[in-house]
Design brief:
Blueprint: H1 7-13, E1 19-25, E2 44-48, H2 51-64, E3 73-79, H3 80-89, E4 98-102, H4 104-115
Parallel strand pairs: 2-4
Antiparallel strand pairs: 1-3
Length: 116
């Protein structure tokens, strides 16, 4: 399976104005934190390189957790490098303590495996 995009790749190969997409609750303004079994004990925000990938992930998330269907969660655009720097420097224990940047290939494979 394809892995998340490594930090070295993000910092070295993406421009400073590259956007990414995150899931945000419009009512609270909070970004959605979804645990990842590859990173036990962490509270990651998931960043997507395409809006459509964020939307597909959200649809699967709502399918698994029906309470989220009532929330006003939408993909929002963020600056990729500023977002990961903000997550890395945030010391609030209630906020995310990690990030996962998903490539389109990783999301495609994940969705394909879920439907199999």
């Amino acid at each position: 399976m394809t892995n998340p995009i490594p930090l070295e790749t993000i910092l070295g190969e993406f421009s400073d104005d590259r956007e990414a997409w995150v899931l945000q609750d419009r009512d609270s303004g909070q970004y959605v934190i979804v645990p990842d079994p590859r990173f036990p004990g962490r509270r990651p925000i998931r960043l997507f390189m395409k809006r459509g990938d964020a939307e597909a992930f959200l649809m699967e998330l709502v399918d698994v957790n029906k309470k989220l269907a009532e929330a006003e969660i939408y993909p929002v655009s963020v600056n990729l490098k500023r977002a990961i720097q903000g997550i890395a420097s945030d010391t609030n224990p209630n906020n995310a303590d990690a990030f996962v940047v998903h490539s389109p290939n990783e999301i495609y494979e994940w969705l394909r495996d879920r439907s199999a």
